[in-house]
Amino acid sequence: MRVSDLLKGKTATVMMVQPTLAVGALAERLRSAGVGVMIVSHDGHALDGIISERDIAYGLAEHGATLPVLQVKDLMTKTVITCRPDDTVAEVSKVMTVRRIRHLPVKEGDTIVGVISIGDVLKSRISEIELEANVLRDIAIAVR
């Protein structure tokens, strides 16, 4: 299975925010959208960074009560690891596990075409394992 297969079951809209948005406003956007991460882009196309719930939690520990007025660019992760639609789910699973990343932007050339989560990857891997188990069970029954 490939990353492009994971994207088929997701909305085509990539959630983006401006780097100058206040962190308090970002937190509200994350909550209302029901997502854990947003792409940071100054122009709606470039990948300037990524901002997650984890970044906000760490920011709270570091900045305390001043956190809501800080800008997204003050907390965002600037060096973003990405994947491609033709990467395998096994490949991105390894990257996400080793790097302790819960969300990966998917880029096709210079265009961000989606974001996958560790939940998307796990769901896919579980489906593959269940299919394998069913096939093996069917083979075992047929051999009897």
Task: Indicate the topology.
Elements: H1 3-8, E1 16-17, H2 23-33, E2 37-40, E3 49-52, H3 53-63, H4 72-75, H5 89-99, E4 103-108, E5 111-117, H6 118-143
Parallel strand pairs: 1-2
Antiparallel strand pairs: 2-3, 4-5
Write structural notes for this entry.
The chain starts with a helix and ends with a helix. The protein has one domain: CBS-domain (Roll). With 144 residues, it is of the alpha+beta class. The protein has helices spanning 3-8, 23-33, 53-63, 72-75, 89-99, 118-143, and strands at residues 16-17, 37-40, 49-52, 103-108, 111-117. The mean pLDDT is 92. InterPro entries: CBS_dom (IPR000644), CBS_dom_sf (IPR046342), Diverse_CBS-Domain (IPR051257). Residues 76-131 form the CBS domain. One of its GO terms (molecular function) is kinase activity. Keywords: CBS domain, Kinase, Transferase.
- How are the strands ordered across the major sheet? 1-2-3
Instruction: Count up the domains.
Output: 1
Quick one: overall form?
elongated
Alpha carbon gap, first and last residue: 32 Å
CATH homologous superfamily, by name?
CBS-domain
Enumerate how many helices there are, as a single number: 6
* Strand and helix order: HEHEEHHHEEH
User: How many DSSP-defined strands?
Assistant: 5
The overall average pLDDT, rounded, is 92
**Structural class label:** alpha+beta
Just give the CATH class. Answer: Alpha Beta
**Percentage of residues in helical conformation:** 40-55%
Largest sheet: 3 strands, mixed
Unreliable sequence segments: none
